[in-house]
Amino acid sequence: MTEAPAQDRGARSRDAIVDTAGALMSRYGYAATSISMISSECGLPASSIYWHFGSKDGIYVAVLEHARTALLAALPPAEVPGADVEQRLDAFLAAVEDAFRRHPHGMKLLLGLGLVQQDASAAAVAEVRRYRDALVAWAQDALSTVFGLSDRPRVAEELARFTLRMASGTAVARWFEPGTVLETGPLRVALLALQAHHDSAVRVPPGPGAPARDGTDK
After folding, report:
1. Which one in 8, 23, 91, 112 has a CA-CA gap of 20 to 30 Å to 172?
2. Residue-wise pLDDT tens digits, 58-67
3. Would you list the domain boundaries of the chain?
């Protein structure tokens, strides 16, 4: 009869630690966030934190896993709706903007952590990379739908990585200006320009002696 309530209390304590640590690390960074700060903020003793996670790095990995799971779950399917490229692009950017707005801590932690990777363990860095890979895969699939790039995966990947670099820059800017928002207007212009550049590149006839291009850009 007492085991289940104890387990519930343990789960609540663990969640409280993860939520508190995530907010603090998002605000101050991994290196500047101490166990004592987490303990003071969440109201749980340091011994409880060590019991659940073993170390500060264990908390860090748990925070990253939680942020990754929450943000990826919030992303819509990659089959972006819309009758044409511009409608689909608007829908894609609205989804990115919404995720950025609703998960500010996760975006700062998981997109801006290149600044602090030297202070983190291999497990934490691996978690960041898993998350970034998952985001790239989602953005690549979505932008492949937006621009009709199913036969040109390298172009879709370039557009996806460009989008995430823009989001990363905004996440880093939030360390200094918390109110910074993701500016999807310029991002929209840039994505359309990049796609037009690739389209014009495959339409240019090869010069004398140059190999013909097949337009797949694979």
Report:
1. 91
2. 998 898 888 8
3. 64-203
